[in-house]
Amino acid sequence: TRATIFPRAFLKCVWNETKGRPITRVINPEFIFFDAMAEDWEDIRYICEVTVLTRGEFERRIKKRGREGGVYRSNALEDATFGPYPDWLLDEEDGSEDDDHNIVREGFDWITIYEYYDLVAKEFIHYMEDGQTPLLVSPLPYKQLANPYTMLTFNDNLKDLGGLSDAELVFPTIERLNELSSLELWHTSSLA
Known about the structure:
alpha+beta; 5-stranded antiparallel sheet; 8 strands; 3-stranded antiparallel sheet; 192 residues
């Protein structure tokens, strides 16, 4: 259903340590912000993905003495604000109150993270929502693949990278049919 509403989709290629190979993830287009001024996907200057972490996931990413694996600055927890899962990231199609995903979302404290790829400065940066200081600044994670995202557009709009959804293709026709139907009803009622 998203393909008829959204003019584009995103795939992200990431390295999976457990499997020892790259994997491709489908990313919700509502969670991606990119340089819309670029004329071609290869020319974008930045791309940003919105993600959420639980308190435990966030704390495991913090650098601590004597522990491996931390990548976020050591004082990040002082600036962090945890809360419920952000409403604006919820899937609107999923209206069920009792589903397993909703139960899991309510069981944790969450923080919103912005994963920012600066393709000009060749930096990979993480910010938390309302945070002024980056949690992580490092070189891009993949040397051979600066931009791990691929954008799929179903219909080219011939103007920019935005694409054109299937719904936008048929909307003028539906609008015209609705207008003709309304005029027909108005004309029929005025004759009676």
